[in-house]
Amino acid sequence: MDRVLISGFNSLLALLSLALTVFAGAALFFAATAREDAYRAADKKTKQFWLIILGVGFAVMLIFPLLSFLPIIALIAVIVFMVDVRPALKQVGGGRRSGGGSSSDGPYGPYNGR
Q1: Domains identified in the chain, total number
Q2: 8 with 31: CB under 8 angstroms?
Q3: What is the pLDDT of residues 94-109, one digit of tens each?
Q4: End-to-end CA distance of the chain
Q5: What is the span of the domain harbouring residue 52?
Q6: CB-CB contact of 34 with 54 (8 Å)
Q7: Is 8 in contact with 28 (CB distance < 8 Å)?
Q8: Could you tell me which residues come within 8 angstroms of residue 28 by beta carbon, excluding any fewer than 6 positions away?
């Protein structure tokens, strides 16, 4: 009976660890695809700062088990990015494509090739 419970707990912990690692990878992806000037406009740290923090956090989550303190610190950094920085970047239009314009839009409107 104890082996079944321990095996189930280990399986649950492995799934949780995988989900949190994917979450950290998604945060790293969002940080990498946001524009550099959006970080300054949102008055957040630089893009390079967040890429380093989230990259190290992602690596820590891949290497260390979930119950140690390093992945918990990495998870806190990921949550701060996803809850505070990413919405601020989206608000100032720091996504891959801000607004609803076409991919051929320039800074002052559509580019017609002339």
Answers
A1: 1
A2: no
A3: 555 545 555 556 666 6
A4: 76
A5: 2-93
A6: no
A7: no
A8: 51, 54, 55, 57, 58
In this predicted model, what pLDDT tens digit does every residue of 1-55 receive, in sequence order? 788 888 888 889 889 999 999 999 999 999 999 999 999 999 999 999 999 999 9
Q: Is residue 100 part of a domain?
A: no
> Which among 72, 91, 75, 67 is positioned nearest to 24, based on CA atoms?
75
> For residues 9 and 107, what is the distance between their CA atoms, to the nearest angstrom?
53
- 92: tokens are 């100032």
Q: Write down the pTM of the prediction.
A: 0.74
Quote the strand ranges of the chain, DSSP E.
105-106, 109-110
